[in-house]
Design goal:
alpha+beta; Arc Repressor Mutant, subunit A; nine-stranded mixed beta sheet; nucleotide-binding; Asn/Gln-tRNA_amidoTrfase_suB/E; three-stranded antiparallel beta sheet; about 500 residues; elongated; about 20% strand
Amino acid sequence: MTTVAMLTYDDAIERFEPVIGLETHVELGTATKMFCGCPTEFGAEPNTQVCPVCLALPGALPVANKAAIEATIRIGLALNCSIATWCRFARKNYFYPDMPKNFQISQYDEPLCVDGWLDVDVDGEIVRVEIERVHLEEDTGKTLHVGGATGRIHGATESLVDYNRAGIPLVEIVTKPVVGTGARAPQVAKAYVTELRDVIRSLGVSDVRMEQGSMRCDVNTSLSRPGEPWGTRTETKNVNSLRSVERAVRSEIIRQANVLDAGGKITQETRHFHEDTGETTSGRSKETATDYRYFPEPDLVPLAPDPAWVAELKAALPEPPRAHRKRLQEAWGLADAEMQAIVNAGAVELIEAAVAAGTSADGARKWWLGELARRANEAGVELSAMSVTPAQVAQLQGLVDEGKLNDKLARTVLEGVLAGEGDPAAIMAARGLEVVSDTGALEKAVDEAIAANPAIADKIRSGKVEAAGVLIGAVMKATRGQADAKTVRELIIFRLS
């Protein structure tokens, strides 16, 4: 029996050209829902934030949320889109088990924002991702499948529906096909979603918390052999972290390449990304636009944004994130490669917040890109998901700067912070971890180290002061790492001079 070797990622890229596209859904942070006055607070008891409108009871009519329309226009402007002078909502008909009216109010052929672009930095090279449309719609409810092992409907014994999310304003940002990225396609996808999240957060229209579902990304991927038409695309649904966006594209490229290389065909379908394995599995066949039977929403009037109002919104846009990062780079005195490392780690805002809390950029960068980045990578989570705040990092580095902690002790204190024991100063005091710098308390340990290492002491007396490191290490061990190394060295040299 012959075993066929699976293609690696490098093999796949050598034989096929990837085309990607991203559809990103962003829940707006409005006080009320898109077409009714129900609150939008996250985490409320199931089915407590509903009314006749969002439950689609007979006779209830929708009214569009002006704040949501304004937020969508601001997003479109920040993405360099043209804003429609006239547009309208449509009904998207589909079997929605988590939408009471069994259709979604969305926009189809007349979206609010079109033809934009967003530049992203990928390893020092700017890649322009073109935006096809930014449109406004309502979110669906949430279905919880219980009784199974995976949390999905297959194998579940029952399903529960929470309609609180149904009707929350949802913006969908759709890119045009992104071509020519080759082996960097996964990195481009991640860089785009990262930059998009930063743009939206800077506008203050959403918290864009992927772990809570307020930002979700559908990743489209297709492969073709060089010179051939684009291949059939798949859509990996609801990818919920920046790291997973990159992994989903990479996984789907490998999967499709192996199917095509074996003579198979790619099915147009939705797929699910599994965080634990990094692989995708089949969902359902993907519908085309005609399958949704779009038609104009009869209960809502068209939208006609006043051009003067749009101009006011454009003039009031905040500093773009890329310009903001450039300003921070200059203020922090960093080289391009150093700033890019911060961007790649998703640490710009974390470091900026730590600096605002009172530490230096170098001090904040040391922790976020060092110990915390290592732990986040081991846990497979985003850096921002670590259970430590920028203020706590600033306090930790402040204790180091004051000489109360050395880096080794600070790492121990950080473990306590991550374990939920409190702020660094409280943990240092509770565990008795403060550096011992009092010469009286250190003299005994120094004398004992000299007595235990006479040969080393003789070397130092003869002028070989570099040998003092051995004695310093002995003192540090005796004091459980709490001795101030500089003070210990001075005491050793003084004793043996």
